């Protein structure tokens, strides 16, 4: 019986590594036995704070240089991490564009194309809504009932006219309700940011707009860049263009 109690006492006295307390003496003993510790772990030196023995306000030239170098290293590390994060985001966007293009290839109808665009763009880009507006009539009269065909009757609102410039680029808009209302309607008042992309056909003339909206004002920012948006607009434009009737130059369309 006594033996069992002793075993129980031993079990209760055991501690996990997380529970073990390392005191200063233990650390000092370890460093004395391992003089090359800081050589093999030089990054730790960057985290050490050793005040000058003559006082906190006294600092040598070498210490000042070390502080400057530490700051530079820290800034470079932050910049590197930011670049890596942007690279990961760009790789993800590239994969999503590739997947979208594959899904759009060989679709049997324009209705199916629009359905895929709405579903995939909303899901892949964590957007709250996706809207497409086509300025011209479809080749197939049955497609005219689709909501994507604009009811502007050839009248282009002033707020989006700059996007129809042949040399214009896609833009990110933040808290600009007037532009987003043209695509998203009343729900645009709840949006904080969005992307607006002109849709071009093989003849490089603009025949519509693609908009992606989000309630998050930081979701679509100017730092996103226009390369990704341009590629997305080109893919969508080339897929939809064959379903559109002969387009005229948007400069011939009346501005509101």
From TrEMBL:
<feature type="coiled-coil region">
    <location>
        <begin position="59"/>
        <end position="90"/>
    </location>
</feature>
<keyword id="KW-0175">Coiled coil</keyword>
<dbReference type="InterPro" id="IPR029016">
    <property type="entry name" value="GAF-like_dom_sf"/>
</dbReference>
<protein>
    <recommendedName>
        <fullName>GAF domain-containing protein</fullName>
    </recommendedName>
</protein>
<dbReference type="InterPro" id="IPR007435">
    <property type="entry name" value="DUF484"/>
</dbReference>
<dbReference type="Pfam" id="PF04340">
    <property type="entry name" value="DUF484"/>
</dbReference>
